Amino acid sequence: MIKLVSIKYNTDHALVVRLNNGNYSLLFDQKIVLLSVVLTVLLALTVLGALALGATILSIETVIDVLLGQASQSQQLLVNEFRLPRIIAGIVAGFALAIAGSLIQHVVRNRLATPDVLGINEGAALLMLIVLISSNVGLMGPWWVAPVGALVSGILLLFIAKRLGTHGYRVILVGLALTYLVRSLSELMLAHINSLHASATYSWSVGNLNGRGYEVAEPVVLILAILMPFVLLISRQLRVFQLGEDIACTLGTHIRRVQFMAICLAIILAGLAVGIGGPIGFVAIAAPVVINKIIGGTQLAIINTGLLGGILVVVADTLGRLLVAPLEIPVGVLTSILGGPFLLWVLLSEKNT
After folding, report:
1. What transmembrane ranges does the database entry give (predicted)?
2. In this structure, what DSSP letter does residue 82 have?
3. Are 115 and 267 in contact (CB under 8 A)?
4. Which of 53, 318, 331, 343 has its CA 20 to 30 A from that of 60?
């Protein structure tokens, strides 16, 4: 039986939790723990705000009553059947996208290296479009096709990058070329289908959570629960890479194996996110960069990055529902608008450091 012995801070202000008479200990960075608490609270507040805002505005008290089962039937229907499932889907998509971006950035060692820049998201979206157009399943169709498309795109990216060189900037250039190629194929397909189907499909292809809910979020959450232990293990080894490859090898880290596993996990996570809400941009680059700016150093705060990704998607989706109501702006359009200035900020900050 595991017994908690003590909780204290060491000289580096890290939280040390000792178990079983000190035989085992867990080390938590104080800043990361505090940031986790702040982001969790912020996510909860964001969800409450998203549940309250829309074509019909509810008070926070009403939203809480709905969650407690004490509101009217119409209010419960609005919150529980329409808004909450969409919000949950957005959180899951943002969580997966942000972590995928963080893993790829640390492997390639470039902040611009993300699934949407490297063509992984576009590859996932292309295969989804092929299935949607060639069948009658509709937009609620096989979400699991997206991870397959992401894997195909990722394999193609790695194959070409290996032939040209695996330096960070080469990988990004190959990824950009792949992105434009796959995107042009998607647009070509959309141009040759009937206008009604094309409109709905195009709306999803730019990133949209409209109509998405538990039917796609629940299986993805189960897969995330299986993948997260591996993600946390790999992220811990990636942190050693920040010390240099020579030191990492000295410490017994198998660099190529860890990099390959990290890329594979990132590709699957990105594909899962695309399966939920389409290729939502900006989140995979923004969340890791912001978290790294906050915690500094060589920390790799995976959970915090995922939480921020969920917050960004929910905020963007809520704004999309409000700005031109009763019409909606797809969440991917809003995140892309924010992505341009953010990329400029990243480039300028890199130049100054």
Report:
1. 32-58, 87-105, 117-137, 143-161, 173-196, 216-234, 260-288, 294-315, 327-348
2. I
3. yes
4. 331
